[in-house]
Write a structure and sequence with these properties.
3-stranded antiparallel sheet, RNA-binding, Glutamyl-tRNA Synthetase, domain 2, 48% helix, Rossmann fold, 464 residues, mainly alpha
Amino acid sequence: MDNTIITRFPPSPTGSLHVGGARTAVFNWLYARAKKGKFILRFEDTDQERSTKESEEEILEAMEWLGLDYDEGPFYQTKRSDVYQKYADILIEKGLAYYCTCTQEEVEAMREKAKAEGRKPKYDGRCREKGLKKTEGAVLRIKAPLSGTCIIKDVIKGNIAVPYEELDDFVIQRSDGTFTYNFAVTIDDLTMGVSPVIRGDDHVSNTPKQIIIYEALGEKVPEFGHVPMVLGSDKKRLSKRHGAMSILEYKKLGYLPDAVINYIVRLGWSYGDQEFFTRKELIEKFSLENIGRSPGVFDPEKMLSINAEHMQNSDDDFLCRIISSQSKIPVSDKLKLAVNVYKSRAKTLIELEDSIKVYFTDEFEYSEKAAKDNLKESSKEILKSFADKLGAIKDFTHDEIDAAFNQVLADHEIKFPKLAKPLRVALTGTAQGAGIHETLDLTGKDKAIERIEKAIMWINGNKC
RNA sequence: GUCCCCAUCGUCUAGCUCGGUCCAGGACACCGGCCUUUCACGCCGGCGACAGGGGUUCAAAUCCCCUUGGGGACGCCA
């Protein structure tokens, strides 16, 4: 018809969207966006036992959070059996599919035997030429080529050759009338015009089966792109214990969706030495050719640091809105200032919120060590005289504050840190954080005096 | 067992298509230092890899073969 690129993401709603799944979703989405094509969402829910509505909703929510919008769907395989039946009938008519009445036990026995003889475990095709009619308990099998080689044209891995002898006459329709995964996927991709089919590495061995179906139907075989798996730190397939939790967990942990996408894409794909990408840049620069061929290990630390980088590069207003919605602190110039000053000190949105909330509440505690080291008897007078000077200030400007600093410093014959450090602890409860001017600005004059007095009381109380 | 895929610092990777510019570059982590009232940020420097063995070649991380290692798949699951 036309050359529009159509990609798809086909999760089975049997669990949440985790890192690996999200990555193939992102690759498909990016490629469609990069090529100005279409991105389709399709739920492969033919496994009625394990599919749940909750999983479906969670996947939808995760995709929305990541900003992976789709142009068509979501489609549901369970609602498309009539389409599959139509194509199965074509195959039967062409004599390229046949009914088989072997029991599962019989087939299992064949496989055991073949295995024992050192051959590939497979169905031996005993019903292939029997011309059996459809009967209770019969399955529909495809007539697979007996010889020759299947060439998978893979845009990522290059051509892959698999001898047809490796495959058997696999089942395309179960005895209960439902269709198997390989058949449903193929018909879906075919009828939805999907190409390239971008999916995980673990599907390469399914691909020859699907090619057999396309060819039996006399249809054009799409292009494939198999992306390598994501591994855990032990080089084993990623699982919960490696931190392969739901992608939504990262939202809870305070990650930015763009950072998650950046990390996930860069794991297995590269663009020279560049590490940091905005979503826009990714769409501009993404290409299938630059996806690597080897599996990659998921590194939570690197993802964290990419997130920190995205935080730093984020617009203050944008960060402000997120912090406000997650913390109930209303958006204000003060919040914006706080975000601006603290965003380079936080690796996640949660850390950011934690570090600035002291400016929006009167309830905060001194960190034990910070108080012990800085709120000492010797700091009392210094703090006291600074509070007095502050009280006398007319304009709460940096110049006036500096003047107050200098006076206190001169009066007590001390260096700046002797005042600044206890002051920061008095104002924020911790020994580290923003510069003292920013800290004062965020606290406000009256609150600053109040907190200094509170700190002095604390020193007095602590003494006894 | 059989088939398929893969192999550069601890990890993600550049380089491999067109062998020499690579005694291998960047990033995370780690270790020093600078900046600085603190902590971050930033900047500078350090540590650290072509799995092994054979070829081909004047020359190999780059091409070929073998070995080893890792991953995946062999269902009326997806």
